[in-house]
Amino acid sequence: MTISSRSSIRQTPIVSFGVRAYREFARTNSTLVADLAEQRSRWKHICSQLAGLSRRQQHSLVRKILRFDEFGLFHAYRGVLKAKLIREASRQSLQALADRLDPFSPCFEPMQQREIEKDGRTRLVDNYGPHKRALQHMVADLIRATNPPRANQFMFNGGIPAALSAAEAAYARGLTHAVELDVEGFYRNLPRECLAGLLRPLPEAVVDHVVWDMSIRVAGDGVSRRIWSRSAAPPLNASYGLSLGSASSPIVGEVVIGRLLAANEIDFDQDIITYADNLLVLGHSEQEAEARAERLTALALEPVYGSLRLREKDRGHFLPPGRSEGGGFSTGVPFVGQFGQIEPDGAFNWQPTPERHNRHRIAEREICPTEEEILRAQRRVAASHRAYPRWATRELREAEERASLSAALYMRSPTPERLASAGRDLVFALIITRWEGRTLEELVPEYDNKDAVDRREDLIAECARLLNHIRRPVDTDRAA
After folding, report:
1. How would residue 129 be classed by pLDDT, with cut points 50, 70 and 90?
2. Dist. CA 449–CA 134, nearest whole Å
3. Which domains are present in the chain?
4. What share of the chain is helix, strand, coil (3-state, %, to 5)?
5. Nearest 5 degrees, angle CA 420-CA 423-CA 426?
6. Cα dist. 136→45, 129, 213, 251, 467 in Å?
7. pLDDT attached to residue 261
8. pTM for the complete prediction?
9. Does pLDDT of 233 surpass 60?
């Protein structure tokens, strides 16, 4: 019997609930799925046509698209799919939703808020139902077709990998220094007044009710309705600005950043690389990069560009250590949570910033983490390392982190199974990092309490036993 390697087992895809739900929907609605595919194809075609039209022609066609329900069934399907309600959907239910879609009028669909934690920060994200999601995705497509992102905006143009490649290409052009900026409170601080002009040819009513969302809420009694505008003081627990969670907000953000990059007041727009609200301002020297960042920060405050408050996150250079003149520029360029350096062989290496790296290495704390913290970190370890495909030692660091987490789990709550698992992970990490000269004692975390000290000794003994098993066949061969 052939046993799959551990790595191949980890990479076996797990079918998510959403995929299973869609498969069930497709199995019972094959004709409907074919009709939706045809509508989707025509929708993509008409959006691509929009990009090549004049502003006047775009204005006419956009209004025609929004007024007529030629693609209503497809938009309704997409709203239901994104709301994770596709399993029970039918042609009748989708058509009923399609008949109610009106981007020019208020939508009274209830909305929930949920907390998410990202990069150590907790944010409130709006969770919409199928009606609003359908409208948001439809409008987002039209905005992107009529206001396409610039070539140096990478959120919709290849993502982070393309943005990092652009930074490497900039270095090849002699741009060695960089200042990373981001927009403080980007979505929540965008003023409504600037959106209608920025998003033309989208009708102002559509901007109000879909993009800005006049925040129509159902009151606590579930019957009465009240309307409040985000331009006024919001109710308790509500926020200003664009919704974090709306499908239209990301492309609107790109349009706002694009307007700033296109400003006549700057002549270095192609030396700026952006991903969402992260901006990397590059220069041929420390002085040039710093001056450009200051100029862009001042310009962004003007109302015509959205009164954006840019703040400096970090600064760095691609030069070898000791080659920079100071000025707070570190060796390595920070961008979108990654830290880029040039290796001695000339290759680029993009690894997590120290802050992000330390956030995941919870086993290295002075006090052993809780079992819940360790199990949560174990579930995330593979994904957290896959997020950095250009990290030269990614596989080695993942093996080390798995080993330290397994060891911490055993020391927190020991069982024979956890001892065996931690031993295997530690030996594997020791083997693949041997060229770095790592020792077993360095890989096993240390905690102060006596129980942890005793269990650490048990782990080291288990690893020694496994290593003896690995070496024994070699020794036998040599003796023969």
Report:
1. very high
2. 56
3. 17-148+190-227 (no CATH), 159-189+257-344 (3.30.70), 361-479 (no CATH)
4. 55, 15, 35
5. 150
6. 19, 11, 10, 11, 58
7. 94
8. 0.84
9. no
